[in-house]
């Protein structure tokens, strides 16, 4: 017997209709590419998104067509989020940090029909405009006064003119909630990029879960500044969550340096923010170097790569900003787990609580996870045994756009490529990505632990630990370090710093000091490039016998 409840579809447009009706006066503040600070309300957002939906349709975009964006976090990008998905087309957020060849490949693969871009990315658009095969219109996200002079972009249109030319009477269509809503390609650290295609249903369910107290924990009282880009897994869902709860939104635009971010936090009374560790490093350096404080920030969500313990301590102990460590992937929408403590942890001492907060945490409702061995057999949740992390749930990818990497699932579970432990309380801890793990003498060494120890040294700004080839042990850990400006530390001092903190045979075999570590398009260390450059370092420098032998 079926229940007798209305079968209303879960559609992204309903988030906007709700925000406009219930939180119409709430503000959306954007630092724009043009240099100004722009202010609008959710009422304005609703009106402009309806005008834009008409404009997009007038450009010939039909339901299911892909509309690309190359844009920072800002109000126009938000308008596109709602106008494109809300009208039944698919918003394809491209990552502007990719190489023009990769962008061309991705836009062609997605068959983008229209490409909207922020002025910052004019040179990028000029480089690809004649190469992308399916794009019929390019739209500069600005007003007439700031339109660029260029002959290299055919069919160049002005965003504000398109919007202004349309009435705001568009009615959001109703359709099947399983319809595709947005598309985001993984950064393709292995093989070609793969398109993750979200649906209205998956997005709405993810939004409900992400807003929960033990997840991103936001309400109408909050002012959210998403540092995580809107081209990186939909800014972790915050543009949708903000509309659902009626939070004030603050967008940093292109200015992601510590000073610009801190100025905006203070000027707009930001209470919650979210981003990858590399961004927070810049912010903390600015705040601590200039003796500043956070007067309104209460929480920051850190994920995308492991939150270094030193960073968590800086926020929580010195600045009274609570850190919520979270784990997810493009394929998981992304919220999968958060390290929100449970009442049972209240009796733990501060060190034990900190250790739990540093794990990637427990699942939000809707996501299930398990760890398996190389034969796919489930492993115990004892906090010690590590295996490949598998997840499933209604906002986890079941495959990739156009069937790339067919058979992505194993028995209905998505293999994450992460190596993790799960403890009896359900707290998951990532020890490595399977391709970064260091296989030494048949045993695994997790690079994240080794990096976290190095990062806790006062002279270290950034540290990556990679597998270097070794004649006897196959692989041994090699530490690559960027020193803080003006700070000094020697190889031996750094290696001594590991003593007592880790099994001796885990100690890196050598340290290489570099000026910078390459970051990928989503702000993560590109360890594959470091491996290419340094994997023969130990063999070449004859750094054997290794520390394992000494242990
Ligand atoms: P990619 O980096 O491959 O482009 P994503 O941006 O989707 O893909 O990143 C997903 C990966 O990032 C996860 O599989 C995991 O390895 C890593 N990751 C995400 N959050 C965390 C975290 N809190 N701690 C450690 N690793 C994380």
Task: Describe the 3D structure.
- Among the domains are: 9-212, 3-Layer(aba) Sandwich (Rossmann fold), CATH 3.40.50; 438-550, GMP Synthetase, Chain A, domain 3 (2-Layer Sandwich).
- The longest helix has 17 residues, at 42-58.
- Helix 5 (122-128) links the parallel strand 5 and strand 6.
- It is an alpha/beta fold.
- Residues 546-551 have low confidence and may be disordered.
- The protein has a 9-stranded mixed sheet with strand order 2-1-11-10-12-13-14-15-16, with helices on both faces.
- The chain contains 18 helices and 25 strands.
- Helix 1 (12-22) runs antiparallel to helix 2 (42-58), helix 1 (12-22) packs across helix 9 and helix 2 crosses helix 3 (75-86).
- The radius of gyration is 24 Å and the shape is globular.
- Bound molecules: adenosine-5'-diphosphate.
């Amino acid at each position: 017997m079926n229940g007798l409840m209305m079968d209303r579809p879960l559609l992204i447009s309903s988030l906007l209709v709700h925000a406009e009706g219930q939180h119409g006066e709430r503000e959306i503040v954007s630092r724009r590419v043009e240099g100004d600070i722009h202010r609008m309300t959710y009422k304005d957002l609703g009106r402009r998104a309806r005008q834009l939906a008409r404009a997009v349709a007038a450009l010939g975009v039909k339901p299911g067509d892909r509309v690309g964006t190359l844009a920072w976090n800002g109000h126009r990008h938000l308008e596109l989020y709602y106008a494109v998905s809300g009208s039944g087309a698919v918003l394809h957020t491209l990552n502007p940090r990719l190489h023009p060849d990769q962008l061309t490949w991705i836009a062609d693969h997605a068959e983008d029909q229209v490409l909207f871009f922020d002025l910052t990315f004019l040179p990028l658009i000029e480089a690809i405009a004649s190469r992308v095969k399916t794009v019929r219109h390019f739209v500069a996200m600005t007003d007439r006064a700031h339109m660029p002079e260029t002959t290299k972009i055919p069919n160049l249109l002005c965003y504000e003119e398109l919007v202004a030319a349309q009435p705001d009477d568009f009615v959001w269509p109703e359709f099947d909630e399983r319809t595709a809503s947005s598309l985001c390609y993984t950064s393709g650290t292995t093989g070609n990029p793969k398109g993750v295609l979200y649906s209205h249903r998956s997005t709405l369910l993810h939004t409900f879960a992400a807003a929960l107290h033990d997840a991103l924990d936001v309400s109408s009282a909050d002012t959210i500044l998403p540092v995580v880009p809107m081209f990186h897994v939909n800014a972790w869902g915050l543009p949708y969550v903000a509309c659902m709860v009626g939070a004030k939104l603050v967008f940093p635009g292109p200015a992601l340096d510590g000073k610009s971010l801190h100025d905006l936090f203070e000027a707009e009374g930001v209470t919650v923010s979210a981003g990858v560790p590399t961004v927070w490093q810049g912010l903390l350096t600015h705040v601590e170097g200039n003796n500043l404080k956070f007067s309104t920030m209460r929480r920051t969500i850190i994920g995308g790569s492991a939150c270094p313990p030193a960073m968590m301590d800086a926020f929580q102990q010195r600045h009274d900003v609570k850190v919520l460590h979270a784990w997810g992937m493009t394929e998981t929408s992304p919220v999968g787990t958060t390290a929100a403590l449970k009442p049972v942890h209240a009796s733990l001492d501060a060190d034990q609580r900190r250790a739990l907060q540093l794990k990637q945490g427990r699942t939000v409702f809707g996501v299930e996870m398990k760890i398996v061995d190389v034969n796919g057999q489930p492993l115990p949740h004892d906090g010690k045994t590590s295996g490949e992390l598998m997840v499933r749930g209604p906002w986890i990818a079941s495959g990739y756009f156009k069937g790339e990497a067919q058979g992505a699932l194993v028995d209905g579970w998505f293999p994450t490529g992460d190596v993790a432990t799960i403890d009896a309380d359900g707290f998951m801890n990532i020890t490595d990505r399977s391709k970064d793990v260091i296989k030494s003498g048949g045993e695994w060494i997790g690079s994240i632990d080794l990096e976290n120890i190095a990062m806790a040294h006062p002279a270290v700004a950034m540290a990556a630990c990679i597998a270097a080839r070794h004649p006897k042990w196959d692989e041994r850990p090699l530490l690559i370090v960027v020193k803080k400006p003006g700070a000094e530390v020697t190889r031996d001092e750094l290696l001594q710093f590991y003593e007592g903190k880790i099994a001796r045979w885990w100690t890196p075999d050598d340290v290489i000091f570099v000026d910078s570590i390459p970051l990928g398009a989503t702000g993560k260390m590109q360890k594959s490039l470091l491996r290419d450059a340094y994997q023969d370092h130990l063999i070449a420098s004859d750094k054997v016998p290794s520390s394992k032998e000494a242990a």
